[in-house]
Design goal:
Number of helices: 8
Helix content: 25-40%
CATH architecture of the largest domain: 3-Layer(aba) Sandwich
Shape: globular
CATH topology of the largest domain: Rossmann fold
Largest sheet: 6 strands, antiparallel, barrel
Distance between the termini: 53 Å
Number of strands: 17
Strand content: 25-35%
CATH superfamily of the largest domain: HUPs
CATH class of the largest domain: Alpha Beta
Length: 352
């Protein structure tokens, strides 16, 4: 007997094919598009974002082709609070958030899943590129599109009610299937950037909400090299856009090493000073197998993977890297793997 499944349909090709696959498998599928903007006209149009009027229409057309009921759920208020306001607050605190990860955690697999279960659905399906088998999350076979990192924050309970029908497929295979099924989104470009920043100008977006506050850019010994109008506009590892008054002694580029929101100071230095081997992370979530030997960690979406060991302190963990990592930013997720399998995740608090 099939399951009652709520298919989250963004208006893109991945979620459309995901919904089609589970409907074809005999499940009782209902499509839902999440309206995340109170004023979608202000968000970028076309295919670059995922909060546009065009996307809701594309999702409805796909549901019609598949032959499933379709609804739009207004999640704008929750999205504003849990994703946009969190994004601004994290930057104000000198951290670098990942809004896509937060949206998966707070919207798609908390707010939506809670409502779906209350309505009698058994599971929520999305078009994420990741494998899920027996409640265990693993990487997609398509490395360029793998999204297990942004799903690494999900709990075992949430994963037990999730379905990722594209788990064994590459993006090229998904597009070919969409064309065969007559889905008009087959050639629709992937979304890019941050969906709620209409023009892609993160610095301008933050300036409107946090204002401007002049501060100093210093080197590691405290020498003032320049000024800025808001420390929130910088992230650890950043090289471009520093606009410093004097070049380095060796002529090599400088990078952002740290951001101190209280003193509104940005510290810069050579690339070598970005290297860290020990990471402290908070709010760990263990959602995979218990075996924690032979671990690797990914520190950014589509970032490098490092061999590591962990010391579990309950509310926090220490991650000791086998090789130095660069540009590790507080606020990002550290997602732990055993091979391709996700073991758990935690939020980076500091590194040395």
């Amino acid at each position: 007997m099939g399951l009652r499944v709520l298919a989250a349909m963004s208006g893109g090709v991945d979620s459309a094919v995901a919904a089609a696959r589970i409907a074809e498998q005999g499940h009782d599928v209902t499509g839902v598009h999440l309206a995340l903007s109170a004023n979608p006209q202000s968000h970028r149009t076309g295919a670059r974002g995922c909060c546009t009027i065009e996307d809701s229409r594309d999702a409805r057309r796909a549901a019609d082709v598949i032959g499933i009921p379709f609804y739009i759920w207004d999640m704008a208020e929750r999205f504003q609070r849990d994703v946009i306001e969190d994004f601004v607050a994290e930057y104000a605190a000198g951290r670098t958030p990942n809004p896509c990860l937060r949206c998966n955690e707070k919207i798609k697999f908390e707010a939506v899943l809670d409502r779906a279960l209350a309505l009698g659905f058994d599971a929520v399906a999305t078009g994420h590129h990741a494998r899920l088998a027996d409640g265990v999350l693993s990487r997609s076979p398509d490395p360029a599109k793998d999204q297990s990192y942004v799903l690494g924050v999900l709990t075992r309970e949430q994963l037990s009610h999730a379905m990722f029908p594209l788990g064994d497929s590459t993006k090229a295979e998904v597009r070919e299937e969409a064309a065969r099924r007559g889905l008009t989104v087959a050639d629709k470009p992937d979304s890019h950037d941050i969906c709620f920043i209409a023009d892609g100008d993160t610095r301008g977006f933050l300036a409107k909400r946090l204002g401007t506050a002049q501060g100093e850019i210093r080197d590691e010994d405290g020498t003032v090299l320049g000024s800025h109008s808001g420390a929130y506009a910088y992230t650890v590892g950043q090289r471009k856009g520093l606009h410093l008054d004097r070049p380095s002694a060796d002529g090599k580029p400088r990078y952002v090493l740290s951001i101190e929101p209280v003193s509104n100071t940005v510290t810069v230095g050579p690339r070598s000073s970005l290297e860290v081997t020990t990471i402290t992370a908070t709010r760990p979530v263990w959602n995979g197998p218990a075996d924690r030997s032979g671990l690797t960690v990914q520190l950014r979406a589509h970032g490098e993977v490092y061999g590591c060991r962990i010391v579990d302190g309950g509310d926090s963990i220490v991650i000791e890297l086998d090789a130095p990592a660069k540009g590790v930013a507080a606020g990002q997720a550290a997602v732990l793997y055993s091979g391709d399998t996700v073991i758990g995740s935690a939020t980076i608090a500091g590194a040395s």
